[in-house]
Structures are given as structure tokens and as C-alpha cells.
Design goal:
Blueprint lengths: L12 H21 L3 H12 L5 H11 L6 H38 L17 H14 L4 E2 L5 E3 H4 L32 E3 L5 H9 L4 E10 L11 E11 L4 H16 L5 E8 L2 E10 L16 E10 L1 H6 L11 E8 H9 L12 H4 L4
Parallel strand pairs: 1-4
Antiparallel strand pairs: 2-3, 4-5, 5-9, 6-7, 7-8, 8-9
Helix pairs in contact: 1-4, 2-4, 3-4, 5-10
This protein binds 3,4-dihydroxyphenylalanine.
The site of 3,4-dihydroxyphenylalanine (DAH) has 11 residues, from strand 8 and strand 9.
Length: 368
Amino acid sequence: MPYTVPKLEDFSPASLDQAVRDLLSAVRQEATAVSGENDSREFRDRWMARKNGILTQVNDLWLKAAPGPSKREVGARVNQLKTEVEQTVDAAQQRIAGSASSARLAVDRVDITLPGIRRPLGAEHPIIKTMREVVNVFRALGYSVAEGPEIEPDYYNFEALNFPPNHPARDTQDTLFVSGQEKKQQRDRLLLRTHTSPVQVRAMLAQKPPIRVVAPGKVHRADTADATHSPIFHQVEGLAVDTNITFSDLKGTLDHAMKSLFGSDVKTRFYPSFFPFTEPSADVQITCFKCGGKGCRLCKSSGWIELLGCGMVDPNVFKFVESNGYDARKISGFAFGMGVERITMLKYGIDDIQLFYQGDVRFLEQFA
Ligand code: DAH
């Protein structure tokens, strides 16, 4: 039978004692039976709720009902009783809260003997890797590194590189133009740079001769994506200008660079070519590093692989930067430009340029 507050027959100390003892033994017994958080809330409400909790009933049935002369005595006992009931209820609540939190701790316990979660390390993208390798070969020769914007006015991408307006040489670089530029003069119209060569002009405007710079960066062409073409790709440009720079310097420098990049066994050859901003111009070919020059699939049986364009800076280019000390009668220079994707594909035997842009970790992690 759950405890209920009795009406007191009389208010003598003896019957008060009895009533108090019964109540305390009831609250203590109920307290030991409390288990779980719901129980503990119910227990507290049963005893201490303002509205009709047992202590409130004690107030009504014992204290309020007490006749005048006993009020003082009853009041004192009821107060003490309240304190004891409160303590018992608090203790029960703390016991429950304590075991709930240790239950939660037990669930959350970390097993430090389990193997950790391995987080895969990031790695350099193969294009960036090659770009840095190329740049480092030239840095070791004393070249500094320059960069330019990917959106250029026509002037830097073409005109100052000796592509006259409407000259057919422009058609060799399928250009992506920024729209809404028709009102501007042609030289001011913006386009996505088709090569890193405009950085040559910017570097010469920023620094008087002598100058030795390489310029790595992203370029754009209106090409449809396939296994060997991408509308976005990367180049490394180079420029050296000083007094008495000759074609021998160009050959020696690029021969050294190709041996550094592809192995000391490769040989280079300079094949006549044309670029508006160099005269004479050449394509650099290296002996096939796969077959050693005998002829194979990689070099299309020729024994040679074409890698980059180069030449002696055309005096017409110097005219555009003459105001910064580039007087074609006193100085000369050479320039070169190479495609980073092409070099990376040859180096690692990759047959599809699109693999570089797909972000497939199975491909990329091979270069980590
Ligand atoms: N800009 C040329 C291209 O994208 C590559 C090039 C050729 C750069 C000859 C040069 C150079 O600096 O001298 O096809």
C-alpha cells in the first residue's frame, strides 16, 4: 500500500512522533526504489509538488488542522520533516542523475586500442608538379618567376607580340573573346590569353634589361575537348634578354633544360618554324626517350618528339617596350614556350589529356 497522509486523531507528542516516523520511513523506502529518470521525477512530484504533494498535504492536514495551543509544536516538527524529505528526494535525484551520466560516459567511451582513421594526404596535381619542375630547372639557371593575368587585352596577347591587327597568324590561336567589347578599340578588347607569351611583354615593361624570367600559367583556346585538346591548359614561358644573347645561348639553355627534364641521354634538335614574335623561330625536338631514337609508337616511328616553340626575340617586339630600355640595336634575346600537359603526358605515358581535369583520385594518387 503506498503511503497516504493520515488525519491526526490528536496532536499529542506521542502521536506526532508516530506520524513523523511513519512518513519518514515511507519516503526513505520509496527513495531506495527509485530507478531511472522518469521514476525520479515522479517521486519528486509525489512528495514535493506544490499542488497536492505529500508535504503540501502535511501542511493542510497536520499544521492547519492543529488546534491553537499545539500549533507551535506541530509547526516545528513539520519544518524539520520538510527538510528531511527534501534531503531524501535530492539524494535520490542525484543518485539517478549520476548513474545516467555514467551510463552516457560508458556509451561514449573511446577504445584507444582501435586503429585510427587514416586521412589520405593531399598531393600535388601532376600538372602543377611538372610546372614546378620546369620552373625549378630555370630558377637554378638564375631565372626569376613572373605571372600575368589570364584575361588580357588584345594588345598584350597579340599586337605587342607582333601579330598585327587582322594578320592571319592570329587564326593559328583559336581565341575565346570576352563578349560586349565591340565599342572598344581592338587593342583594348579583352580575351582569354591564348598563351603565356604576353607575360614577356609585361615583364619587359616592369624590368629593364637584362632580364631572365619564366612565366608559368593557365591559357585558353576555343578547342573542343578530346584526348589531346582542352580549352584550358598550361604553359611555361621563358625570356632572356641581354647584350650579345645569341642562338647558341638559346640552344645551350634548352638542351640543358630538356636533359634535366627527360634524362641526360636525350638529344635535342632545332627545327625551323614560325612565330610572329621570334625571328628566327624553331620547334625543339628531343630524341624519343622511350625508344632512344629507333622509332616507336610514342614518337610515331620518327625517333623524335616535338616539345616546344622558341626563337630569337623579334626586333618588332622590342619596339613595343623600347621606352623601358629595350633598344634592338643594343640588346638581343631569346624566348620559348612549352605546353605543360604535353610534357606531363610524354613523361608519364598518359594518353588522354582529359584525365588531368576529371579529379579522379585513382588517377591522381599515382603522382603522390
Ligand atoms: N606562344 C607559343 C604558343 O603558344 C609558344 C611559343 C613559341 C612561345 C615560341 C615562345 C616562343 O616564347 O619563342 O604556341
